[in-house]
């Protein structure tokens, strides 16, 4: 069984999505996990472990995970833990729709851990996670390790030497929400009435 990587040392930060308490696509939890790969896999029924390699794709409802190699272990109570790795120049990618139409959470990292019991995704190494609204990016987070809890929609972030930013710093970008085209423009402030001058003298006739 692959070793779970320890958290990289740095300051810890928790960020809730700015859009509010709307959760990831709840229907995904009742959908089966489907695995496909280009190369032959290995199924260990005794240890409840499946190994796949070569353009591995995992789907579960709207959830889509792509990796070069995946090791999936089934727990005694029927949950699954997937450990995915990418290759040089091609990271592991993850995408899942939210309950808000047109919105999704997507991200990439060198490695990824997905746990169906806790509904958490752990992005490890040069991680970048975004919340998209249509084609636009609403929030973007980069760091060494990012843990996404799809039930609460909370990101837990850590910096570290694997961060893409200088000195391993975590970076968060929150884009302003665009104003609706139908929203009425703010009314201009009413002009003050003209007042007679208290300093100028009337002009004398020539």
TrEMBL record:
Q: Which HAMAP family match?
A: LPS_assembly_LptA
Region listing for Disordered, in residue ranges = 177-206
Keywords attached to this Swiss-Prot or TrEMBL record, sorted alphabetically, are:
Periplasm, Signal, Transport
Specify the signal sequence span.
Answer: 1-24
Organic solvent tolerance-like N-terminal domain spans which residues? Answer: 42-153
Instruction: Please name the gene that encodes this protein.
Output: lptA
Keyword Transport annotated: yes
Q: How does it assemble?
A: Component of the lipopolysaccharide transport and assembly complex.
Q: Which family does it belong to?
A: Belongs to the LptA family.
Q: Where in the cell is it found?
A: Periplasm
Protein purpose: Involved in the assembly of lipopolysaccharide (LPS). Required for the translocation of LPS from the inner membrane to the outer membrane.
- Kindly provide the name given to this protein in its UniProt entry: Lipopolysaccharide export system protein LptA
